[in-house]
Write a structure and sequence with these properties.
The protein has a 5-stranded parallel sheet, sandwiched between helices. By secondary structure, the chain is of the alpha/beta class. It has helices at residues 16-26, 53-67, 80-91, 110-113, 131-141; strands at residues 2-6, 31-32, 70-74, 95-100, 121-125.
Length: 143
């Protein structure tokens, strides 16, 4: 199973350690196409590269998104990129799980929470100690 994981990069890297934990947990269920999102070497400026790198990143990530069987996103840290990826995933009719931590004191965008339909698109409020069980439940429901 190909899994596309979304997490904030240029929107802020304060959740990087959590992203790494999620990526490692997702690897139990399949191939994580975007495992670099959890990397400590990736800064808030994003990936280093030559001029035109933004276009190459966009095109590569959309190709990965098309290859993905499911999308899992940690949406607590607001990110334009994650929002864009989720919108494209909806257009591609991908099965999605969005994870949000209310303990952050933030409010999740109505455009994310409102897109949940209980079948193809799920939004789960969670605390970190529930992560493994939520992912287990999600991936078990795919079988």
């Amino acid at each position: 199973m190909n899994i596309y994981f979304c997490g904030s990069i240029r929107g802020g890297r304060s959740d990087q350690q959590l992203y790494l934990r999620i990526v490692r947990e997702l690897q139990r269920y399949g191939s994580v196409l975007t495992e670099h999102v959890g990397s400590a070497e990736l800064s808030a400026t994003g990936e280093e590269g030559p001029a035109g790198a933004d276009k190459a990143i966009h095109d590569r990530d959309l190709e990965w998104l098309q290859q993905a069987d499911v999308v899992v996103a940690e949406v607590t840290q607001p990110s334009l990129g994650v929002g864009y990826e989720l919108g494209r995933a909806v257009d591609m009719n991908k099965k999605m799980l969005c994870l949000f931590r209310p303990s952050s004191g933030r409010s999740l965008s109505a455009m994310i929470r409102g897109a949940a339909d209980g079948e193809r698109r799920l939004v789960r409020d969670y605390c970190e100690d529930e992560l493994e069980s939520i992912l287990e439940e999600f991936f078990s429901s795919l079988k």
